[in-house]
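Our preliminary data section would be incomplete without showing what the modeling component actually yields. Below, a chain of 216 amino acids is followed by its predicted structure, encoded as tokens that our downstream tools consume directly.
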Amino acid sequence: MTPITIEPGRDLLLVVDVQNDFCEGGRLAVPDGGAIVPVVNRLMALFDHVALTQDWHPPGHRSFASAHAGHAPFTQVAMPYGEQTLWPDHCVQGTDGAALHPGLETGRAELVLRKGRDPLIDSYSAFMENDRRTSTGLGAWARERGFDRMFLAGLALDYCVLWSAEDACEAGFETYVIEDACRGLDVEGSMARAKHRLAACGATRISAGRIARSDR
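Predicted structure:
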């Protein structure tokens, strides 16, 4: 496959939710989630510009199954903004579970965006909360910095990475999802649906090995 050459002035690596609760032993562990950390670290060394996201929920967040009597994790409820999957309590503000994975080399990140802070609205995408009206400000920040290509890695491919990629495409960014730097939950076929949705929105699925720099 033809390499994709990084152009530092226009390219941003967006690392989504590589947090303890989404890795092995976490409250909402993505299978093999921690395995992406070395891949993401290698990618961060290639890019001049890196942004990170963190799920950052207040206690009792309405996306938690524990906030809905009689409902189990991974069931659906109607919320004012639409259907919501209920999750185990995870990434609660200030807890070890919400911390970035200790092996993640975060020193070169120029932005850490915390999402899901509204107790009433979940937030999968790095760009928009799930009400699809409330912006996180990431798109405007990236445009102000002059970026027009977005490379995504992180957890989980079939939720937060997917929604972030769709919103990046909708915002006009040339969007790449680095598949071997992601893992998915695969809840009732969600990985297959995610790949279909990525193709439909115009995101390109690539491997980390295709990414190169002309000056290295």
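The first helix runs from residue 37 to 46. The chain is about 20% helix and 25% strand. Preliminary results of this kind motivate Aim 1 of the renewal.
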